[in-house]
UniProtKB/TrEMBL annotation:
<feature type="domain" description="RNase H type-1">
    <location>
        <begin position="2"/>
        <end position="69"/>
    </location>
</feature>
<dbReference type="InterPro" id="IPR002156">
    <property type="entry name" value="RNaseH_domain"/>
</dbReference>
<dbReference type="Pfam" id="PF13456">
    <property type="entry name" value="RVT_3"/>
</dbReference>
<dbReference type="InterPro" id="IPR012337">
    <property type="entry name" value="RNaseH-like_sf"/>
</dbReference>
<dbReference type="GO" id="GO:0004523">
    <property type="term" value="F:RNA-DNA hybrid ribonuclease activity"/>
</dbReference>
<dbReference type="InterPro" id="IPR036397">
    <property type="entry name" value="RNaseH_sf"/>
</dbReference>
<dbReference type="GO" id="GO:0003676">
    <property type="term" value="F:nucleic acid binding"/>
</dbReference>
<protein>
    <submittedName>
        <fullName>Uncharacterized protein LOC107790828</fullName>
    </submittedName>
</protein>
Amino acid sequence: MAVDKNIKVLLVIGDSDLLIHQVQVEWTTKNINIILYLQYVKELCNKFIKIEFKYIHRIQNEFANALATLSSMIQHPNKNYIDPIEIEVRDQHMYCFHVDEEADDKPWYYYIKRFLETREYLDNATRGKKRALKGLANHVFHNEEFLYMRIPNLGLLRCVDVTEATRLLKEIQARTCGPHMNGFTLAKKILRAEYFWMTMESDSIRYI
């Protein structure tokens, strides 16, 4: 698209650390499919007066990822015309509204930890709940004392209960955020501090 519009100065932002470094010839490439891709990118680079590649974390590239996912799901019958998209910015991600709070005084990760320790499901667990529990457990690392959630580009984040989550909200907001920080930024600060709980974003928004 940039070539078609005769753009001569371009900044390319991507959340693949590997590809960005390979395009800039900072890392070697052995995959034959990637080599062909990089050769094509180099040919395109010659069409610009200046082109720069910049890496950002995936969590900072959510909007572009959402648009890419949307484009891969829709097949428009007329390739020469694309319907305009109306975008509404909400104060919370949609999935925040679907996270249930624990009602039995157990931390949200209690059953994940129990499954990792025993490899047993609850007696009344449905097939869907078993599948969901196993899926969550596949993204968790257990080192006997703590649970850590594996997050792409962020590494291992320690899972915390509601008491520690409340303390983190207060401490991190008071220490680093200041009076003009919104809930999403507070949640990102907590992620960078390497902590995690399921309702972190919605809790941060309500706290601010």
